[in-house]
Amino acid sequence: MLFLFFLVLLASGLPADEIFRVDWQTVQIGRPFASVFKDGRIYSLTDQNIYSVLNSSTGEVLYRYQSDAPVKHDSLLAPAWNGLVACGFNHEATSRLVFWTKDGLIEHELDLGSLAGLHNVRDETLLAVQKDGSVLQIDKDYGQSTIAHVGPVQASKLAFFADQLVLVSKSSAGTAYKIFDGQEGSLGCQFEDILVTDEGIVCNKDIYKLESGKLQKYKNSPVAAVAGRTARVVNSQYLVTADENIQIYDLDDPSRLIESHALNSPADMIEADTVDGWVAVFVVSGDDLLLFVGGELVWARDESLAEISDILITDRHEELSVSLGDFEHEKHWSGYIDRVKHNLHLLFKEQHTDTDKHFGFNKTIVVLTRNGNLYGYDSYGHLEWSIKEHGFSRIFKLDNQAYAANEKVYAVQDGKLLETDVNEEQQVLYPPNLDGSYRLLTTAARGYNNTEVASPAVVLASRRVLYKYLNPQTSVGVFYNEDAALLKFVVYNKATNQTYASFEHSTKNPESLKLVFEENFIVFTTSEKNAETSLLGVIELYESLTPDQRSKVPEHQVRTYFLPSQVAAMTVTRTKYNIASKWLIVALRSGEIVAIPRTLANARRPFAVSKKEPEEMLMKYQPVLPVNPKLTLSHYRKLMATSKLVSVPTELESTTLVVGAGTDLFATLVRPSSSFDSMRGDFSKSTLLATIAVLVASILVVRPFVSQKQLKDAWQTRS
Ligand SMILES: *[C@@H]1O[C@H](CO)[C@@H](O)[C@H](O)[C@H]1NC(C)=O
Ligand SMILES: *[C@@H]1O[C@H](CO)[C@@H](O)[C@H](O)[C@H]1NC(C)=O
Ligand SMILES: *[C@@H]1O[C@H](CO)[C@@H](O)[C@H](O)[C@H]1NC(C)=O
Ligand SMILES: *[C@@H]1O[C@H](CO)[C@@H](O)[C@H](O)[C@H]1NC(C)=O
């Protein structure tokens, strides 16, 4: 019976091979505004300030780099020599030219003026046209020389003739051309409509060719008849155009359409390359990235997911394999037998597929993107459904039901919409007014009431207690005074407007404020612009700071710490019964998500530790909160632009699901008090089985001896 009991305890265990299953991320790049398609790779600059490399046969992201400074949408990409890609980043104040290897290493970097054009000249040199009109030639040793001056330029194209180059540029006056070492002039057509081919410069219905140092106009070029705004020439062989259709023509005979493929919406950008003799066309159409080869769609990426504006998580009503209900309904034995069967199955079978169904790990993650699309993921990272083109503006959750709203409100169930008239209860907090020089930034209050607080007091080493201040009406309002650059935290009762305490903190960057309020503690972080660190403040509220005393008005304790990076988002772990310890979960600007135990980020860490009798196991105050690599939840991952973090309980008290969202979506399971209610990953099943076997064997061996001895004893006492 004891052994069976053992098995029952194991039932709530979590086998090692499941731990990293709920541990995934999506990899998004955003919407490209410039791309280069070369040798099976698509290099892009996107609206998420990302430079990325995609594998053109799968659409998989091979490399990503996100610029800290915003990248303007007139930034440029061009292929350079030796397989390098030159990327001209135009930032607000500065510009730089970065040469990347195809594996995502920086080969060289140059600081230049704002760039209007970047042109590869026969894989030998690179021409960088700056907006002020100077044309720089950059050679393979990264030496620079100015080879021409044209007027102020917005954009440029380069045409090649036998041994001469012609630069076509867009300026406020119109479209101009400049023959290097030769004459200049203007062209009577829109810069965007100009198509540069080996034959000449195609413009309106005409084609210009360079003859004896002059541009000569030839009327009614056949290429001009099909060229449009988004036309591209591929490998000097094909002409690709795209509006609602992608059309590929033979450049030598432009009246001959080779293939055509319909799009759902007009293309914003096309790039093409030949792959094994086929034309591969990369199309950006709204948020969709598409790749066509031979007119067939090979892959598609949905980059609306690169801008997640909100997430919410609903349960799927999974329960532990034996629920409390089974016991209440006296199904002890059937429940027990099921449980034992399940456990035996766990013990003897290596590949168990359904065991995690019972711990409430599999939830629905509903994602709202900036463009109003909804997506549903399960906890394991599978995209289950999507709802597009409804333009939702917000999502909310009531009683574990997800709702999405545009002008109407819909219940969202398994990817289906159901119109309802439910409305989100507006959580109205009335912060007490300060004088007019303060503006309200945000308010926070505990999201649950006292019945859900597991420990209402802190027990000290002397067996005395500090009572947590747990009035559920307690809120905090944060105000900002621009002139004094001062944040003011006001702790008050939202029912009576009584103010309990207020705190001031100076910062010049109030937008960086992150605030959480749990149980009896308030945690906030701020970081100054361009600072390497951020400040984390902890405010704890107790009925009284004198042990064993109670009162109706809180007393508080405050400590501030430094974090060695800027904070992008913050939350606190939530478990089912709030018994497990609490961790702060912090997303850093550097791309990691880290956990900080509350015992470190604590407002009662003593400034001096007396050797005699420490009141409790708190470490001496240190101003810097170290980031422990073992508590880096994102492991090796770099998560871009995380702006929201959510922690939701599972059916296991030890375990909480943490989801982060921004450009990427990330989910992992977190166990702040380690797995006290689940089996450790390195639990040795074979040792357990061997122990049982040895015990059973020894019983079998010992039993004859025992009965012999009993028999002998009986004889001896008789005699
Ligand atoms: C792209 O993916 C294909 C198929 O998985 C693979 O064979 C190829 O090596 C990949 N290319 C690059 C550049 O990684
Ligand atoms: C999670 O739940 C969904 C819907 O019930 C199911 O399709 C999916 O397979 C589950 N995932 C796992 C890993 O159990
Ligand atoms: C609290 O103060 C706010 C603003 O000053 C006010 O709108 C609200 O009615 C007050 N609430 C109570 C209960 O007095
Ligand atoms: C606290 O929450 C529980 C469960 O959600 C609810 O039954 C109870 O009425 C709430 N109590 C108060 C005082 O709001």
From TrEMBL:
InterPro entries: EMC1, EMC1_C, Quinoprotein_ADH-like_sf, WD40/YVTN_repeat-like_dom_sf. It is found in: Endoplasmic reticulum membrane. Keywords: Endoplasmic reticulum, Glycoprotein, Membrane, Signal, Transmembrane, Transmembrane helix. Residues 519-715 form the ER membrane protein complex subunit 1 C-terminal domain. It comes from the Eukaryota. It is a single-pass type I membrane protein. Residues 1-16 form the signal peptide. Coiled coil: none annotated. Its main location: endoplasmic reticulum. The chain crosses the membrane at residues 688-706. Pfam families: EMC1_C. PANTHER family: ER MEMBRANE PROTEIN COMPLEX SUBUNIT 1. Belongs to the EMC1 family. Component of the ER membrane protein complex (EMC). This is ER membrane protein complex subunit 1.
